[in-house]
């Protein structure tokens, strides 16, 4: 049964589906030919076009100003404006309710990402130690600079994409509604990683206001995460090399290995000269002749002229 007191649709009412053609006149003619008037046929209010007003299941969001002016009285338009003004407040209430439902899951996710209760991945430890070493080598003492380096290299590079687009990792279909929710959560994570103060005001977007109280706590979690990694045991070059060899062996038979190498080489090609210079100056790279090997790779990939 179909019942809606606000629309004055009684229980057991019959819904008439009217095919919409090119114009209102065609619809009127179609009605006159195929739908004889009677008490079992739903009646439509008079409209501008042949006594028929076309509606969807939901009222159109926008109408021409001329038609809107002709239709209804001033009191009706005032009621419409009042309803439109109340919509954001209704949405805000629903957003807060949804936020409360998801809050524990968001907290648990951020805690899992920014926790070192389990052993820190050797790649993360090695990368962060390398950034600390480079900062000391170049005399960079500003802690915010290091914070930005680490944030851009891991949290914003990997975790934001994982939060916003889980389909990159999992075989799932993300609906439009879920995608909008994940975008808000991902933006909250981004705001939590920034070093600048998170300021909100009356004109701030709703998604900024939703987690305004939680972001300072999330910022502390990020700071603690970097501090805990810095204080953990160092990862040597040999350990990192061994881990990479093991990881490479696990995927040696992967069918898309060549495609992955091709994508990796695109980044190498972009900074080819700088990488060659760095490898020629690095003592460890000199012993392993990495610059020479990279030149050989370049020659194979794009027939690049080398000094070999």
TrEMBL record:
A GO term for molecular function: semaphorin receptor activity
Biological process (GO), any one: negative regulation of cell adhesion
Coiled-coil region: none
Xref: InterPro entries: Plexin (IPR031148), Plexin_cytoplasmic_RasGAP_dom (IPR013548), Rho_GTPase_activation_prot (IPR008936)
Plexin cytoplasmic RasGAP domain boundaries: 38-275
GO cellular component: plasma membrane; semaphorin receptor complex
Protein name (record): Plexin B3
